[in-house]
Automatic annotation (TrEMBL):
Superkingdom in the source lineage: Bacteria
Protein name: YbaK/EbsC family protein
Pfam families: tRNA_edit
Species per Swiss-Prot/TrEMBL record: Streptomyces lanatus
SUPFAM superfamilies from the UniProt entry: YbaK/ProRS associated domain (SSF55826)
InterPro entries according to UniProt: YbaK/aa-tRNA-synt-asso_dom_sf, YbaK/aa-tRNA-synth-assoc-dom
Residues covered by the YbaK/aminoacyl-tRNA synthetase-associated domain: 33-156
Gene3D superfamilies: YbaK/aminoacyl-tRNA synthetase-associated domain
Length: 170
């Protein structure tokens, strides 16, 4: 089994262990392998607004300081890069390269959790994410998703709550 596949199974196992040990009600949903938010929402049978879209960002605060941020926004919206730049008083904010995102999120793009199990990846969630009674996301796997309440997500993930979502591009 390739090393990255083993690591991603470990991320899934870590998530399930966290949920079980925290006595969180959750539901697992198996579906065809899919990482696109719109398509996986259709497979799971819920509106995109109930999905957690998770994007790893590179935030250059100054010449010497680069941070990585996991922005979590509703699935029917996009990350507002200007809002993130303002939030961190940064010179530049952009999408992380796939290798860095995978290393920090311990998951391949399309399966990134709204949780961080890496101290170098800070989580910022839009308030509309934690307000969801049912929040859906891929569970570090393309073929399995998870549903928990936004309140339980906030309690366990402890994200920084800030307005970082913008309307989807038309």
């Amino acid at each position: 089994m390739p090393e990255h596949t083993t690591a991603h199974h470990a991320t899934y196992d870590h998530l399930i262990s966290l949920l079980d040990s925290s006595h969180v009600d959750y539901r697992l949903l198996d579906h065809a392998p899919e990482g696109s938010t719109e398509t996986v929402c259709a497979l799971r049978g819920h509106p995109a607004s109930e999905a957690a879209k998770c994007i790893v960002l590179r935030v250059k605060v100054d010449r010497r300081t680069t941070r990585h941020v996991l922005a979590v926004v509703p699935g029917d919206r996009r990350v507002d890069l200007d809002a993130v730049r303002t939030l961190y008083d940064a010179r530049y904010v952009g999408f992380s390269d796939p290798e860095t995102a995978e290393r920090l999120a311990h998951a391949v793009p399309g399966t990134v959790l709204p949780f961080s199990f890496d101290p170098d990846l800070e989580v910022v969630a839009d308030p509309d994410v934690v307000a969801q009674p049912a929040l859906y996301f891929n569970a570090a796997r393309l073929d399995r998703s998870l549903c928990i309440s936004g309140a339980d997500y906030e309690r366990l993930a402890k994200p920084r709550i800030e307005r970082v979502a913008a309307p989807a591009a038309v």
